[in-house]
Write a structure and sequence with these properties.
This protein is mostly helical and 64 residues long. It has 2 helices and no strands.
């Protein structure tokens, strides 16, 4: 249960960091909110694809 609480807390922090950075860079709340929602979703997809690739290649970046 502790790991789940940490994951949720980290997700909330990640959202607000993304929201804040995007708002500071653009000055537009709508764009900042969009970035804060879309970026973690894209990041999760990329992480999944990376893990899948990594599992297929047994963690080796070099051909044997």
């Amino acid at each position: 249960m502790r790991a789940a609480r940490k994951a949720v807390a980290f997700s909330v922090v990640h959202f607000f960091v993304g929201l804040t950075v995007a708002y500071v860079l653009t000055g537009q709340a709508a764009i900042a909110a969009s970035v804060a929602v879309v970026e973690p979703a894209v990041n999760a997809l990329i992480h999944f694809l990376y893990e899948s690739w990594h599992d297929r290649h047994d963690g080796s970046l070099h051909a044997a």
